[in-house]
Amino acid sequence: MNFWNQELSLLKAEGLHRELKRLESSQSPRVIIDNREVIMLASNNYLGLSTEQEIKEAVIRVIQKYGTGSGGSRLTTGNYDLHEQLEKELADFKNTEDALVFNTGYMANLGVLATVVGSEDVIISDKLNHASIIDGCRLSKAKFLVYKHGNLARLENILKRSSKYRRRLIVTDGVFSMDGDLAPLPEIVELAEKYQALVMVDDAHGTGVLGAKGAGTIEHFGLEGKIDIQVGTLSKALAAEGGFVAGSKNLIDLLRNKARSFIYSTALAPATIAASLASLRYLQSHPELLKNLWRNINLLKDGLEDSGYELLPSNSAIIPIMIGDREKTMELSKALLVEGVLAPGIRPPTVAEGTSRIRVTVMASHSVTDIEEVLDIFARVRRELKLIR
Ligand SMILES: *Cc1c(COP(=O)(O)O)cnc(C)c1O
C-alpha cells in the first residue's frame, strides 16, 4: 500500500471521503446531473446571472476583441482597461474610495491578511469564519484569537486583554456560509471604535443579496464608511470569477504593492472581468432580481416550517434545515436527490457534531412553481423517512 492509499482508506473509514458531482448543464434552477434533471437548491448563483443573455453577449464581444488569456500578472502585462473599470465600479457599488480585484475570494483573503497584519499584531476572528480567512491568518503570522460565533461579550473580553499588540484586526464573515446568519456588525463596529481595533468584513454571501441595492451586509446595516476592509467575491451572486478588496485609496495602493497573491499570479482573463462588470451593471439596473430572490427565500422558509422542518434563524439566501444526526441528514439528502432536488447534507467536520443539516440556497431565477415543487418533495420525503426533527 502506498502513502496515498493509507490516507484515503482512513478518510473512507471515517466516512469523510468526498466525490465530485458532475454537471452537464448551465447553472440554472433545473440542472442536469448524471443524465437526470433535478431542481438546483445549492447554487451560489443567487441572482441567476450566470445564464443571462445580455451578460453572455458582453463576454462574447470581449473575447472577440481581446481573445482568451490575459498574458501576464497585473503588474507586468496583464492589466487591461477592463480590470480598472471593474475596480472603479466595485468601489462605487461598495461605497469605498477604491477596490482591487484578485483571482479568487480565497486569494483576496490571503493577500489582504498577510499584508495588513504581521507577527506584532493580533487577528480576532469569529469561530465560524470561512476557511480562506483562517488560511490568511496563518499566512500573516499574526497572533490568532477566536471568539464564540457572534458572541459580543467574548469579543469584548479578547479586546480588553489584547492591548499589547501593535494592531488589532477584528475579522468576520458578513453572512456565515453554513448558518446563513449575519454578523452583528453595528455592535462590532462600536467595540472596534471603543478599543481602537480595525474591522474587516468578508461579504462573499452578502454581495448581491442584502441591502436595498444589493451591496451587501454593510449596506443592510447602514455602516458605509465604518468598515476598514471589505472583501467580496465575484463568483457567487455576480456569477463570474474572482475576488476583491474594497477600502481606502491607501489600503488598495498598499495591496497593489505588497499582496503576494495579487502580484504573483496571472491576471484574470478580460472575458472573466467582462462577465463581472456586466453582472454588476445588470444587478444595479434590475432591482426586480433582489425582489424575486427575497420572495423565493421567504416562500421556501415559510413552506419548510409549515411542513415541520426546523430552520436555523438565517437572514440570507442560505437556509439551513437542522437535522442533528449525521446519518439521518445524509439519508434525507439522498432521498431528496432521488425525488429530484439537489439539497446537500452538511456534517462534521464542516459543522459541529450534532448539528448536521441540509443546507439549501435559493436563486432569484427559481419560479414560484419550482419552489412549490421543492416544498411538495420535502414534505413527502419527511413523511416517508418519518423524520421527527
Ligand atoms: C466563497 C467564499 C470565499 C471564497 O471566494 P472564492 O471567490 O470562491 O474563492 C471567501 N469567503 C467566504 C465567506 C466565502 O463564502
Structure write-up:
It is a single chain. The radius of gyration is 21 Å and the shape is globular. The longest helix is centred in the last third of the chain and has 19 residues, at 288-306. The model has no long low-confidence stretch (mean pLDDT 97). The protein has a seven-stranded mixed sheet with strand order 3-9-8-7-6-4-5, with helices on both faces. It has two domains: 17-46 and 287-385, Aspartate Aminotransferase, domain 1 (Alpha-Beta Complex); 53-285, Type I PLP-dependent aspartate aminotransferase-like (Major domain) (Aspartate Aminotransferase, domain 2), CATH 3.40.640.10. By secondary structure, the protein is of the alpha/beta class. Helix 2 runs antiparallel to helix 11, helix 6 packs parallel to helix 7 (185-194) and helix 12 (288-306) runs parallel beside helix 14. It has 14 helices and 14 strands. Helices cover 43% and strands 16% of the residues. Bound molecules: pyridoxal-5'-phosphate (PLP).
Provide the structure class: alpha/beta
Number of DSSP helical runs: 14
Note the main sheet: 7 strands, mixed
Q: What small molecules does this complex bind?
A: pyridoxal-5'-phosphate
Q: Which strand order spans the largest sheet, edge to edge or round the barrel?
A: 3-9-8-7-6-4-5
Instruction: Give the overall shape, derived from the CA principal axes.
Output: globular
Using the coordinates above, name the CATH class of the largest domain. Answer: Alpha Beta
The total strand number stands at: 14
Domain count: the total is: 2
Radius of gyration: 21 Å
- The share of residues in extended strands comes to 15-25%
Percent of residues in helical segments? 40-55%
Q: Which architecture name of the largest domain does CATH use?
A: 3-Layer(aba) Sandwich
- Terminal-residue CA separation: 43 Å
Whole-number mean pLDDT? 97
What is the H/E string? HEEHHEHEHEHEHEHEEHHHHEEHEEEH
- CATH overall fold name of the largest domain: Aspartate Aminotransferase, domain 2
- What would CATH call the homologous superfamily of the largest domain? Type I PLP-dependent aspartate aminotransferase-like (Major domain)
Uncertain regions: pLDDT < 50 for 5+ in a row? none
